[in-house]
Amino acid sequence: MGGTGEYPNYYNYTANMNNYSETVRLEYDASVTSFSELLEAYWQFVPDPTAPCDDVAYCPRIFTVTSEQKRLAMDSLSMHQAKTNKTILLQIVPAAEYTFWKAEEVHQNYDQKFGMQC
Questions:
Q1: Helix (H, G, I), strand (E, B) or coil at 62
Q2: Which class for 49: exposed (0-12), middle (13-18), buried (19 or more C-beta within 10 A)?
Q3: Secondary structure (3-state) at 5
Q4: Those residues with Cβ within 8 angstroms of residue 12's Cβ, 6 or more apart along the chain or in another chain
Q5: pLDDT by residue for the chain (118 residues), tens digit each?
Q6: Among 6, 41, 56, 79, which is least packed, fewest CB within 10 Å?
Q7: What is the CA radius of gyration of the chain?
Q8: How far apart are CA 16 and CA 14, in angstroms?
Q9: Residue 32: CA atoms inside 13 Å, Cβ hemisphere, count?
């Protein structure tokens, strides 16, 4: 997501040549799973959000689409921040400020193609 330049490929992404971030675009049915439930799942799997981020490609971020999602994400961040004495460095940013680039075909459904999870 983001970056500068034309359509990114795996080479310029991994070389961090254009400031791209690795992201997952998640589409969900809000009548089945709430955004708050997705946030709680996120916190269980995000790498240490208090660790300094040396590689922009892997910095923990939550991209929001609506003002309600932003509010819920900020509330969730505040709740998790209260549980630690370290500063959480996670960013919450509007998705509209960035271009979401679909990964190359070889990286689509990676777990199904290669029988493993990233």
A1: strand
A2: buried
A3: coil
A4: 5, 18, 20
A5: 666 666 666 666 666 656 667 778 888 999 999 999 999 999 998 888 888 877 766 788 899 999 999 999 999 999 999 999 999 988 898 988 877 777 778 777 777 887 765 5
A6: 6
A7: 15
A8: 5
A9: 3
The DSSP output letter for 35 is H
pLDDT (0 to 100) of residue 40: 95
Closest by Cα among 96, 92, 94 to 75: 92
The tokens of 94 are what?
């509007």
- The answer to whether 61 touches 42, Cβ cutoff 8 Å, is no
Alpha helices in 1-118 (DSSP H): 10-14, 35-45, 67-81, 110-114
d(CA 20, CA 37): 27
Report the alpha-carbon distance of residue 114 to residue 106 in Å, rounded: 10
Rounded to the nearest 5 percent, the helix, strand and coil shares of the chain are 40, 10, 55
